[in-house]
Amino acid sequence: MSWDLVYLIACLLILPIYLLALIISARVTSVINKYHHLPAAGGMTAKELVQRIASEHHLAITVEQTDQRTGDHYDSRAKVVRLTPKVYNGTSVSALAVAAHECGHALQDAENYFPLRLRHVCIKVSNFGSRLLLPLIIISFILSIFSFTFITESAMQWVLLGFCIVYGLTALVGLVTLPTEFDASRRGKKMLKAMELTPDREQERAVTKVLGAAANTYVISFALSAVYFLRYLALFMSLQDRKR
Questions:
Q1: 38 backbone dihedrals φ, ψ, rounded to 5°
Q2: Nearest C-alpha neighbor of 196 from the set 15, 9, 30, 44
Q3: How far is residue 204 from each of residues 57, 146, 198, measured CA to CA in Å?
Q4: pTM here?
Q5: Tens-digit pLDDT profile for residues 20-60
Q6: Using CA atoms, how far apart are residues 125 and 13, in angstroms rounded to an integer?
Q7: How far apart, in whole angstroms, are the C-alpha atoms of residue 60 and residue 184?
Q8: 173/170 Cα distance (integer angstroms)
Q9: How many domains does the structure of the chain reveal?
Q10: Are the C-beta atoms of 36 and 210 separated by less than 8 Å?
Q11: What are φ and ψ of residue 83, in 5° steps?
Q12: Would strands 62-65 and 80-83 be described as parallel, antiparallel, or unpaired?
């Protein structure tokens, strides 16, 4: 397969993946809102769930309320599960599913789960690379104004290599994130079932749908990063071939 064909395929995939990302985002909101009205057994709030899981599994973590902008997440540095107001005070299947998922990450952290450690390392490297993205965009725009002399072509080669590194690292983070997220969801579902908070099939299916919809956002994020990486890699390799 030629690099020109790889570039064409990558370009053709970008728009469908963006559209799919919008659909998945809307799906996540729809599913979470739907099951926000389905009460879980026991009337326990998500905050109380985190505290109970921490006690039963001997986790040295706390739980805090955060704003919608930050979103629900587990902070491994501060050892805190942070939940948005709707989840923090929620007693629904949706709220408990999200809280249990974040507790799944806390369990991973306590067990020194390798994919989670690898993800932290990759994120640090990726964050450094992401700072290069804006300068690379500016430089590539300036170079595109000039005709492709030997100097500008050589400079463009280095710019394309920079794009490959940035999007390659982003794709790598996305790839190592997938097993971490799927495992956290598996742990979350297992804990909810063990605590008899999802005693019937309807509630079990609801938890699966909520966590499954959220997991799809990570899948599509990885796919988009991978396509951008292939696009710039194909441009870089095509330029290399022309110079030979």
A1: -100, 110
A2: 44
A3: 22, 60, 6
A4: 0.85
A5: 999 999 998 899 888 888 888 778 999 999 999 999 999 99
A6: 27
A7: 18
A8: 5
A9: 1
A10: no
A11: -125, 145
A12: parallel
